[in-house]
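Researcher: Predict the fold of prolyl oligopeptidase.
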Amino acid sequence: MKKTLPGIFALAVLASCNDSKNEKEISLNYPETKKVDTVTDYFGTEVKDPYRWLEDDRSEETEAWVKAQNEVTFDYLNSIPYKKELEERLSEIWNYEKISAPFEEGDYTYFYKNDGLQNQYVVYRKKGEDGETEIFLDPNKFSEDGTTSLAGISFSKDGSKAAYAISEGGSDWRKIIIIDAENKERVEDTIQNVKFSGISWKGNEGFYYSSYEKPEGSELSAKTDQHRLFYHKLGTPQSDDKVIFGDTEEQKHRYVGGGVSEDDRFLFISARNSTSGGKLFMMDLSKNNPELVTILDHENTDSYVITNEDSKLFIVTNMDAPNRKVVTVDAANPSPENWEDFIPETENVLSPSTGGGYFFAEYMVDAVSEVKQYDYDGELVREVELPGIGSAGGFGAKKEKEELYYSFTNYVTPGTIYKYNIEEGTSEVYNKPNIKFNPDDYESKQVFYTSKDGTKIPMIITHKKGLELNGKNPTMLYGYGGFNVSLTPSFSTANAIWMEQGGVYAVPNLRGGGEYGKEWHDAGIKLKKQNVFDDFIAAAEYLIEENYTSSDYLAIRGGSNGGLLVGATMTQRPDLMKVALPAVGVMDMLRYHTFTAGAGWAYDYGTSQDSKEMFEYLYNYSPVHNIEKGTEYPATLVTTGDHDDRVVPAHSFKFAAELQEKHAGEEPVLIRIETKAGHGAGKPTKMIIEEYADIFGFTLYNMGFDVLPNKTKEEVKG
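Model: Structure tokens for prolyl oligopeptidase follow.
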């Protein structure tokens, strides 16, 4: 179906009618983006950066540009005839009660619940089995518009105190509020300027947290590279908080974290300069003036202490074990030469947890979960029987508990919580969501396709049963491919709407991810990053060859590193897809490391300062630098948030400006900039629904649908 546009976009769209065709040809009048004469020399190559001024997120010029772009974008999106219909259907299916697994703290059992369309989940609790359920914390009351969210909560040892973090407008900068858990009243001043931090209590006296000094300039984009671990003692001002680690040049690292063992005896400290690989230290808190003890003094592995039994430490590591294993060592001599295998490495990636005096080893087998239960002697107790093929998670509880809770989901099964009897190994349904979606109407299957260099890549394809392979099915190809992140099967309310419209949803497990361990991750980093793009392109070609879809009905989507994936793929193969949907993407590969904590991504990307070879490799695929004038690009909707201080919105701003200047086709290239929103975490439900309605509406409309596909089929049948 050809698209027709209702009305004329004021100041944004010029529509002209051709009498010989029953359609309108549309051209967008994009806001003018000024260019500046900025040039940087990289190893003798001069690179122009005409839109660098958009990096200044505090300038009035940037603010005006954002406003002008949004006016054009929302005029377009709001004119899509079925946008409101999508929004209403998304709201309808989203409107079901969502409950988390319960957890016990002190005399109370706590859980999270969202009644349906609440912007933020509410924390509830009850005392004992028969206690009355009450609201403990309602983040919907943190701000009028729902953009201030709960970013974590931690209870003191006896459950009498709680410290919770809040995020305002989606920023990674947090505040920590400390309350008396019994009466819910604040007990002291708010801890300010906290970033990339957990909250780990030592008994009931205080807690450890991490942060940077507030940077000079913009707190949303200025570089942060010296992370510190602090200890806050209750009853004292933040100015008295003691730096435990990270205050010296020798201890300078970009990411520092600290966690106290369940028995309160040890503090374990991780120190990293990149998102992969880190050092590991410990302090014995049972001693007066405990000293810092080194467990690992290099950043060649990812290792952490999962638990301890008196002085016996259990460490999860990928040292000499790319798929991870668990080792044991005595705290008196914790260095690697003394490590002994406890749960050895297998051919599948291990993600262990503990609960009720046992270990639960979750393995990824072609991105699908298998779980085995071990005792503290390392003996296999049983393989946990899961409800089906999909992703299982949770399997954590305190040592004395007799039950734990885990979740199970896949692409057609809404997340269900199960109660597990730890001794007997039996599961029962604890909470199954009552959602207006029938999994029996859909099917999900895994295929293996061949990438450019011959590597076999798994992909899960999900759609309505009875799908006709005619090359005309609207298809959403979603990918990530980086940072050791694994895309395992999980249900999405939004994707349910996509599939309800007859859409295909396909997720390949690209190299750069963690689905097959460290070697799979390392096969998609630095000078091998092109493998990731090749894997994604090959996924698209497979879907086309197998007649699931065609280039006229294919959309590619990804966020953050996945936004880079989409940006690189659409600039390398603009002919391959009809719609491109890069979200909060890393688009300027020559300058990403100069913003916030971006330099910490160098393990995956390398930087333009590393070497001439690394610069040239990055320059060759950097999305901002590979948009060619005169090329017809797919219909593109770039999405970002003005408070994104992880992947700063300047990446998306510059990418959109380059596209609008150089794009030769008639397809729209727009940028949707959410205000008072960040990288994604804590985004209010209302905002999420509106964004998905825009994304799906933009996608289907640019595939040529005048009405929603499921209605089209009904009309054809009629």
